[in-house]
Amino acid sequence: MSNETKQNDVTRIFMIITWASAAVAVVATIAFFAWWAMKDRIEFGDDKFDQVAWITASGTVDKTCHRGDMAYDLQQNVLQAGITREAATSLLGRPSWEEAGQMEYDLGSCMHVIHGLRLFFNENNQLTHSRIVQH
Question: Quick check: 66 and 73 in contact, CB under 8 A?
Answer without folding.
Answer: no
